[in-house]
Structure to design on (214 residues):
């Protein structure tokens, strides 16, 4: 993909570490305080898993059946896809490309397999691993969230160790102990990515022309 003003971010973490909450809070913060050239969006994945209570099709995920998902794979509609906890999850190619081109930052909430695929295609992607402060706290959050049955929680706890074993493949690591602190750290990563010369050249093209004119 050609250079775009928008930045691509990947947040990966074991389920329950707080990725969704952090992204949601970051988006809210920027919607309230950010200047309009600093917009960000979270990518809505496709999944074959059943919606949880309160999840809305097209908002949290595009919920599709396995046949529809297979068809999208065949059409090469996905930027990346992976099987997680026995369900398919994938990120649509076209939406990401168009959003980045518009100068909008995009967050992907995807697993380590997806992160690897995206990083290989777009090395410029900032990959962030979110870790829980302890195993006990991870189990507590999964249980307290009240969204998954005990056997699904068991599966997710086992999978957590697998996900965490890949943390060193990421560019940044945030430990989500105190929520506000983790949010501030995430925000700092976003800000520093935005300030990179390559992006500022695009953003301030006219300014530098003016400053350098005789
Ligand atoms: P929702 O399911 O769309 O409401 O959002 P989330 O799954 O992101 O969060 C579930 C609830 O937990 C929301 O009411 C959040 O405000 C709340 N929440 C998120 N992070 C924290 C935290 O660090 N501490 C506490 N106490 N609540 C939190
Ligand atoms: P993920 O998207 O990684 O699966 P969630 O964002 O759904 O995780 O968070 C899992 C649960 O933990 C939610 O109920 C959320 O409110 C809670 N949570 C997230 N971050 C913290 C934190 N720093 N301290 C306490 N609870 C948290
Ligand atoms: P959940 O069912 O809790 O929403 O998500 C389960 C796991 O699937 C999480 O680790 C999440 O990051 C991952 N996931 C969600 N969407 C995608 C996606 O589009 N691609 C990939 N590779 N993983 C995803």
């Amino acid at each position: 993909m050609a250079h775009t003003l928008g930045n691509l971010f990947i947040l990966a973490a074991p389920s329950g570490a707080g990725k969704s909450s952090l992204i949601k809070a970051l988006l809210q913060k920027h919607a309230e305080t950010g200047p309009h050239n600093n917009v960000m969006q979270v990518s809505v994945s496709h999944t074959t898993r059943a919606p949880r209570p309160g999840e809305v099709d097209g908002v949290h995920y595009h919920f599709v059946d396995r046949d529809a998902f297979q068809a999208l794979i065949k059409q090469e509609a996905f930027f990346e896809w992976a099987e997680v906890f026995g369900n398919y999850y994938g990120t649509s190619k076209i939406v990401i490309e168009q959003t980045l081109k518009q100068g909008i930052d995009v967050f992907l909430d995807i697993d380590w397999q997806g992160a690897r695929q995206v990083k290989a295609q777009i090395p410029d992607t900032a990959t962030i691993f979110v870790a829980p402060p302890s195993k006990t706290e991870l189990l507590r959050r999964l249980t307290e969230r009240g969204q998954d049955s005990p056997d699904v929680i068991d599966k997710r706890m086992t999978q957590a160790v697998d996900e965490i074993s890949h943390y060193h493949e990421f560019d940044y690591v945030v430990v989500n102990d105190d929520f506000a602190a983790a949010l501030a750290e995430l925000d700092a990563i976003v800000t520093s990515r935005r300030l990179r010369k390559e992006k500022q050249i695009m953003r301030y093209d006219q300014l530098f022309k003016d400053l350098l004119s005789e």
